[in-house]
């Protein structure tokens, strides 16, 4: 059924059906009989029809679970590597289950893929934003598989790149990715990488000449607070001073988002409700300044706690256009 010359005379879709069913056949036969299927799988993996290769790409992580780490490393890794260089329609299959596949590999083999992650930023069609959104989602899952140094050296540049994406949906996921990265790096001993990453966020986003970059900095801070990615005392030291300076930003959209973040997210935290600290005083002074802002929207969000209006619902109104 997988012989191309025969399949064409019977049913052009038959190879795709074979590819779809193969993991089930492998599960039924068991890993001890994989040698019976190996050549068939390799034939399908090199099929001329991209739909056949795409079907295999979407299920290769399931086959890896069935075969175990040794057979996966010997027989599936070379095919997986081939899919990584294939058409986007095939690559999306391995990308959607990248974490599921890599977690099954030995740590040394897994580290080899760190050098290839950057290649996922390049697609056949630059308007294929869902590809980049999926990459951001997978990177959040991959954080657990790599050391703090690997995260800082290899995943951090990709995350910062995605934070500046033209498409808002990609940026939204990237803010979550960066905040989770801060959380992982801060948990390391010593948290040097976390401090370096925070400094880079301040420099690249908080002081960005483009207003969209400064707005992204507020979004990242909001996510860090909501998801408890940093202890509040550390947030107050490393991020809050730079966040509060944006009260003087010349772009109303940045100030609106800052007012929402301070009112609806920061002041919900016990640290700022209970402690009569200099940090609490600085927040209150900033909110008072925003309450007297020349922009009516900034005044509104700084003055009251809007009923049933959460930041996630309103944020898109202050986000820049999708394209």
What does this structure look like?
The protein has helices at 4-10, 14-29, 38-45, 50-84, 88-96, 98-102, 107-111, 129-142, 148-163, 168-187, 192-206, 211-226, 232-238, 240-244, 252-265, 270-274, 278-291, 296-303, 311-318. The chain is elongated, with a radius of gyration of 24 Å. Mean pLDDT is 88; it is low at 306-323. It is mainly alpha-helical. It is built from 19 helices and no strands.
Would you spell out the secondary-structure blueprint of this structure?
Layout: H1 4-10, H2 14-29, H3 38-45, H4 50-84, H5 88-96, H6 98-102, H7 107-111, H8 129-142, H9 148-163, H10 168-187, H11 192-206, H12 211-226, H13 232-238, H14 240-244, H15 252-265, H16 270-274, H17 278-291, H18 296-303, H19 311-318
Helix pairs in contact: 2-4, 3-4, 4-5, 5-8, 8-10, 9-10, 10-11, 10-12, 11-12, 12-15, 15-18, 17-18
């Amino acid at each position: 059924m997988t012989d191309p010359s025969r399949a064409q005379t019977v049913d052009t879709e038959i190879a795709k059906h074979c590819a779809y069913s193969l993991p089930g056949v492998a599960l039924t036969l068991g890993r001890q009989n994989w040698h019976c299927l190996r050549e068939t799988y390799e034939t399908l993996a090199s099929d001329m029809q991209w739909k056949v290769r795409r079907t295999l790409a979407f299920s290769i992580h399931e086959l890896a679970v069935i075969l175990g780490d040794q057979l996966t490393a010997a027989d599936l890794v070379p095919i997986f590597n081939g899919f990584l260089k294939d058409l986007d329609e095939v690559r999306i299959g391995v990308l959607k289950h990248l974490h599921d596949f890599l977690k099954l590999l030995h740590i040394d083999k897994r580290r080899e893929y760190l050098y290839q992650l950057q290649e996922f930023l390049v697609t056949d069609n630059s308007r294929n934003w869902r590809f980049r959104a999926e990459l951001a989602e997978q990177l959040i899952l991959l954080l657990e598989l790599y050391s703090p140094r690997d995260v800082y050296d290899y995943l951090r540049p990709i995350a910062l790149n995605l934070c500046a994406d033209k498409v808002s949906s990609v940026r939204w996921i990237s803010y979550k990715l960066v905040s989770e990265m801060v959380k992982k790096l801060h948990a390391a001993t010593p948290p040097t990488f976390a401090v370096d990453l925070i400094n880079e966020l301040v420099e690249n986003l908080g002081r960005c000449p483009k207003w969209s970059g400064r707005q992204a900095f507020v979004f990242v801070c909001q996510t860090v607070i909501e998801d408890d990615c940093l202890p509040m005392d550390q947030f107050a030291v490393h991020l809050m001073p730079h966040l509060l300076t944006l009260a003087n930003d010349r772009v109303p959209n940045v100030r609106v988002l800052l007012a929402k973040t301070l009112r609806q997210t920061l002041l919900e935290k016990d640290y700022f409700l209970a402690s009569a600290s200099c940090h609490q005083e600085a927040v209150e002074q900033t909110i008072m300044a925003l309450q007297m802002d020349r922009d009516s929207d900034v005044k509104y969000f700084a003055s009251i706690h809007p009923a049933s209006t959460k930041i996630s619902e309103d944020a898109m109104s202050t986000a820049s256009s999708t394209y």
